[in-house]
Amino acid sequence: MSFLKLTDVTKFYGTTRAVSEVNLSVEKGEFVSLLGPSGCGKTTTLQMVAGFEAVSSGRIELDGRDITHAKANTRGLGIVFQTYALFPHMTVADNVSFGLEMRRCPKVERGERVKQALALVHLEAHAARYPRELSGGQRQRVALARALVIEPPVLLLDEPLSNLDAKLREEMQFELRQIQRKVGTTTVMVTHDQSEAMSISDRVVVMEAGRATQIDHPHRVYEHPGSRFISTFVGKANLLPGRIAAGNRVELGTLTVAAEDAGFRPGAAVLFSVRPEKLQLVEAGRGRIDGTVRERFFLGSQWMYAVTTPLGELTVLSPNDGRPALDEGHAAGIDWPDHCARLLPADEQVAA
Ligand SMILES: Nc1ncnc2c1ncn2[C@@H]1O[C@H](COP(=O)(O)OP(=O)(O)OP(=O)(O)O)[C@@H](O)[C@H]1O
Fold it and tell me: What is the pTM of this model?
């Protein structure tokens, strides 16, 4: 049975439909991310779960209880928002203790629980410091301890790491996931960062223009994106216009290749999609198609090539295996395994 359940949840601001009939079932202990571009309705959805925004229509249930119209402070949820600042005049320990005091938790128990929460985020040694004496990452860890100390049924995180620099952000992603696994709190996180959503979550909800358009495990979303938008928002994709010849055969210009059988009828216009790291550069004449390296970029662990071909320009990501990279102007063949090719409906135009 789902622990947190959203049924047809919709939000209007005046005549603007910010969130449109979102259905989502989160299991107990699951870590789910709401992922999408700016303005797609992620924060509004989270705010409705938190009780800070009223639901226009639909229903929200927590552990079988209808909380659609319950006041925020009766929901007992743990919340870490990007702008949810710590109390500057209180020590770290007092910040974490605050929620317990409000809940009239006895002093001795309070001290013990604050200690445990700070140990969880590795800040025991900083209990007596003030927020201004901490780094950005440490402050966010205090905010996390403050949310977790009340042992909430659900933890809501809105871009909790977006103020941190890239390196710290990566470390905190790992730490956040470890802490969540340890305490097992059901968690819903908002992020616009696809790699963050993929690396931390059990499942990802991709949102577009107020709608949840794909809900699945990160690996499924990446390998089987449901639309052209998702294939390019979550990772990169080479998209080529094609036409179904028969079954799983698709015509790309003069080339006929295999792809997954996605149930399209013969003659249907489709988008053929293959991820850059699934393409291999081989000797000219030895691949499915020949091309010329127009530009190459060094990414550290990989080389990225822009290759001009008769089908259009293709992006190829090759591992940096220590061998010299191909020069610009070099002729090369391109190959890919059949099972890596996907077909998407061609109802949207291919971006230039
Ligand atoms: N208080 C408000 N009044 C009117 N419109 C709002 C309000 N809050 C949000 N919106 C609109 O609702 C839509 C969804 O906004 P929301 O903040 O949920 O998006 P988001 O996906 O979280 O974006 P971001 O990543 O930029 O925070 C947007 O079009 C936004 O302009």
Answer: 0.89
